[in-house]
Write a structure and sequence with these properties.
This protein has about 600 residues and is an alpha+beta fold. The chain has 17 helices and 16 strands. The chain folds into three domains: about 35 residues, no CATH class; about 140 residues, Penicillin-binding protein 2a (Domain 2), CATH 3.90.1310; about 325 residues, 3-Layer(aba) Sandwich (Beta-lactamase), CATH 3.40.710. Strands 1, 2, 3, 4 and 7 form a five-stranded mixed sheet that branches. Strand 15 and strand 16 form a beta hairpin. It is elongated, with a radius of gyration of 41 Å. The termini are far apart.
Amino acid sequence: MTRTPLRPLAHILDARTRGENPDAIEKENIRQRHAKMHDRARRRAEGRLLVLGVMFLGAFALIGLRMGVMANSVPMEPGPSAAGAAILAQRADIVDRKGRILATNFDTFSLYAHPQQMIDPQAAAEKLVAVFPDLSLERLVKDFTGKRRFVWIKRKISPEQMQMVHDIGEPGLNFGPREMRLYPNGRLAAHVLGGAGFGREEVYAAEVIGVAGVEKFFDARLRDPAMGHEPLQLSLDLSVQAATERVLYGGMKLMNAKGAAAVLMDVHSGEVIAIASLPDFDPNDRPRPPTEGNPSDSPLFNRAVQGVYELGSTYKTLAMAQALDLGLVTPDSMVNTQTPLKWGKFTINDFHDYGAQLTAAMVIVKSSNVGIARIAQEIGAARQKGFLKSLGLLDPVPLEMAEARSGKPILPDHWSELSAMTISYGHGLSTSPLHLAASYAAIANGGTRVTPTLLKQSGWRPGERVISRQTAGQLRQMLRRVVTEGTASFGEVEGYNVGGKTGTADKAKERGGGYYEDKVIATFASMFPADDPQFVLVVTLDEPVETSGAIPHRTAGWTAVPVAAEIIRRVAPLLGLRPEIEPAGEAVITQTSN
């Protein structure tokens, strides 16, 4: 190092004067300078070590946090989900008109396997088959011993099944959280609710989507996070629905019917209080749709909404409504019922010979095909078609169900005079029981059109007028007489005046055209109380046969009517209708001598 002389010279001379050594002073200066340089280097090194220590500490903390997160999560299934896309599994509840749960959510688990982590794949497969008998042992062994790294075993399992899988003790078996749809009432209102399943699916979550019924129709609303706290409230009454289904099932079995349907509707608001189709299913374990055969043979088929049938003489009421409204007849007008009625090469007959003529009212009470056909001739095909369209009978019912669109009426290719005549007594036009219930509701409420709905209504406005109030009143009187003195005598319910019309139609063949000779669709369209109707009930039986007597009976009066009467007897009190009690005669008090 180059020696730095003491400066200035006066300091050197001054030091020598005091007897000090200038060289020692110079060495001290050098030492102090070196000490300062050393202190600066040490502080710089200490700063670098501190920064490096902080960096290492942060890295170790980040790694530890990530390891903790991974330890508390399940491995992701290698699936097709989009990166960063979240699965929303939450789904709003569905409740009846009184707030009782029809559909809700249930936390459960799925079961999957990592075959490469398994200790004994063969034993695990055998034990799993013991827990889940529907699994294939051969398939499980193949999946567990192959090259697959991930295997789905069950999309959803019960807590009991989960515990049994735990007891197997195989580390390669794992569980993923699931939220599944639960229908606590089982088969009740199965066709209305429809069911839900899994859409986009990963190990840690699954998208719950509606697959049928209101679950599918309102899928977007039920999955909307903004409305997850608001249940979807239907117009159904759980108690009434249960009673309707129970009686309908018993009636179907008693009448040896292939299937059955019932629709109970508020005649003013159009609210569907109960709607049933049999056979049914459990939406908690919804069966697969059929791939062959007749779709109507499947329990998934909704006969009340999807099923379109020729509903027989129940349509006579509609023809009479139009004739009365047009002023073509009055209830007391005489109608020619001389049989047979010839139209070209076609012949129309009555079930019984009613003589040469009947009043218009008795045409309905006795259910004369010939009488109503002659009235339909006066109405004409064009006017008849327009009237039925105004009732909504020529288009699918806009009900809030995914299946409602498929309930499209079957119309004649050419609506001729003959078509008008046969349609007047329910042949040549096929509609659903729901269509019929809506048209009868218009008669029951005084003549305004009704649009069926499955949503509870807080308020309602009358629809467009289709018949006059006077005509509606005259028809209600006729329908009451059908029960008291006509074809629906088994429809009388003590305490509740019932009015209605029977309909028995030969069942159309599914293929090749024509009709079965020994199979019918039996229907009873009713309203109660008849003097001031609040509800309409339509009951339809597919291929019924009443066999209690020596002669089998297939007509609606013997089959559908007693079933409908029993439903009314059960549900009327539940609907808040008080029975009318016949006033007793004056009490006779006699005094006897002591």
